[in-house]
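Appendix B, record 7
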Amino acid sequence: MKVVIDNKVGTAYHVDTDYFSYPSNRSEPTMTMTYSGTTALITGASSGLGAEFARQFAARGAGLVLVARRADRMEELAKELRSKHGVTVTVLPMDLGRPGVGKELFEEVSSRGITVDTLINNAGFGTHSPFVEEEPDVIASEIALNVAALVDITRSFLPGLLTSGTGALVNVASTAAFQPIPGMAVYGATKAFVLSFTEAVAHETKDSGLNVLALCPGATSTEFFDVVGSQSAAAGRMQSSEQVVGTALKALDRKGTPGSVVSGWANRIAAGFAQRLPRAVTVAIAARAVQD
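Structure tokens (predicted):
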């Protein structure tokens, strides 16, 4: 069995050339949101997408709470962002795959006198092998982190996010959410849950000042594929973390933030086809796309 982690790294780009939402509404006006005077809590913040979210939110003036297991990497990132942007950065080393972690994290943040205005649920990992070959304890950990922790943390912080009304809730899903993925069955299912859950919460809170977004990246230059030891799980055009996070911020800048956004035009086209083709066809295509 191969275990892969959702850590994305890459190079910069110009987001306007590759931004699409699902569904897309290009007619709505955009503006660059400032997050000065607010605080963003980011899970999985030690590298990849989490670290890039931290950089881009710090660049817009947000204070940060970084949460992940690797304290040393977060401390290095915190030092960089304090120096470059003059923002407050709090580092909280924590294993998020445990029951009750939402309440624990909320109480820890509150005890430090921190009010969270933006929550970015980025932590997660996946497996790449036939389901029958996967270890039960790894499967349980995957579901606990990708689904249970995300829901628990969201529920714990959502009342405060709604009261603040100045930030956002971003849950990182995947283009894997749009169809079953043989060979990555549990991972794809967890991301389908994240997409469905987030779009529902977005509708429930649409009359508040909170922007709620499910971010769906496709293949991204990442440690994900280094850990797999193969590019076989990478389906579609490769993006960088700057591109993916730039897509999320572009969506949040819109007057009418969509409930979900797919990063990259090719990924958006693929997601659209997955919604329209017969289910058996999309499953067969996905199986071929990620096979060894």
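Remarks on this record: The two ends are 13 Å apart (CA to CA). Residues 64 and 89 are 5 Å apart (CA to CA).
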